[in-house]
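Handover notes (outgoing to incoming on-call)

Open items:
1. BolA family transcriptional regulator: sequence verified, structure written out, both below. Nothing else pending on this one.
2. Nothing else urgent.
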Amino acid sequence: MLPTPEQIREYIASNLACEHIEVEGDGSHFQAIIVSAAFEGKRPIARHQLVYAALGDKMKAEIHALSMKTLTPEEYKVNG
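BolA family transcriptional regulator structure tokens:
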């Protein structure tokens, strides 16, 4: 069974403290906006690694592709 955007959102939220998460997708390809203070001072690759770590094995087994925009709370206020 393919995961839903809501399930992906819950997977991320349960393992990474986030102020805001939006996930859209069709079951195998997903797009996400993730806002977390954990991203402060980190480059984009390190931010993505935090999200991949939060997803764990689900990234290999259930999610075919995930494109993401990772923002700090301040960046989200400015850039939405």
